[in-house]
Amino acid sequence: MALDLDALYTDLHRHPELSFQETRTAAVIAARLSELGLEYEEGIGRTGVATAILNGDGPVVWLRADMDGLPVPEQTGLEYASTARGVDPAGNDVPVMHACGHDMHVTALLGALEQLIATQNEWSGTVVAVFQPAEEYGAGSQAMISDGVLERFPKPDIVLGQHVTPLPAGVIGVRPGTQMAASDGLSVVLHGRGGHGSRPHSTIDPVVMAAATVMRLQTVVSREVDPRDVAVVTVGSIHAGLKNNIIPAEAKLELSLRYPDDAARE
What is the pLDDT of residues 39-60, one digit of tens each? Predict the structure, then answer.
């Protein structure tokens, strides 16, 4: 029986899970792999899943899909919009959404496996499908490697991934060279001197420092990165203070850096 990919995608979108918490998602993947008649291993790198199709001589190709959601409230108005909540690494109760397309990535990889099984007489080699946890946390791939995924399955000649992007339905985007950026996450704490809001002259205001820092960071790409390179510096989170008339002692910025290569990173 063919996989119902529409229903699968809708289900995954409705039930996102945070990084390293993808237990339900992993179980859904395992169930679909069983439907396809594939053996698989679960719990690789905590919640990762992997399987292989051995189809004679030929290259070993790994296909990878990430599967975690983000701490974002869904406001799409979709009938199948997520209302899920989770607990982030800091212990905060947060809304969870598949805001980065990992639900589609999982669906696409399962659909690809179904097609590869159906057309085994048209290709030869080995395909390993890897469903990776915690991409958003930046630790899932290393967790799977540390847990021996490279020893449990044939080592790849090439690893292929995919990512959704705003293109018309039915269109696949390709280009020579680097396609997706590498990324780093940074936490920056600005230390000031707190005090009452009525006496700013007696303080060192980290909120003003944070605002100035955010504006200065916008010139890193425009004035310090080669215009031929693609780089992004995003301040996605600012936290400072607890009350409107108190100047806090510190402010915290959470940054995302994206770059095409090590030269741009430096």
Answer: 999 999 999 999 999 999 999 9
Q: How far is CA 50 from CA 8, 20, 29, 31, 74, in A?
A: 18, 15, 10, 13, 29
Contact 180, 100 (CB under 8 A): no
> Could you give the dihedral angle defined by the CA atoms of residues 121, 125, 131 and 132, in that order, rounded to the nearest 10 degrees?
-160
**Predicted TM-score (pTM) of this structure:** 0.87
Contact 110, 6 (CB under 8 A): no
d(CA 26, CA 106): 10
* Phi/psi of residue 51, nearest 5 degrees: -145, 170
How far apart, in whole angstroms, are the C-alpha atoms of residue 10 and residue 40? 23
| Alpha helices per DSSP H over the chain | 5-14, 23-35, 102-118, 140-146, 149-152, 206-224, 262-265
- Cα 20 to Cα 48: distance, rounded to the nearest angstrom: 9
What does the buried/exposed string (b/e) look like for 125-164 if buried means 16 or more CB atoms within 10 Å of the residue's CB?
A: ebbbbbbbbbbbbebbbebbeebebeeebeebeeeebbee
Model confidence over 195-237: pLDDT tens digits?
A: 999 999 999 999 999 999 999 999 999 998 888 888 999 999 9
**pLDDT tens per residue across span 80-112:** 999 999 999 989 999 999 999 999 999 999 999
CB within 8 A of 28, min separation 6: which ones?
8, 11, 12
DSSP for residue 97? B
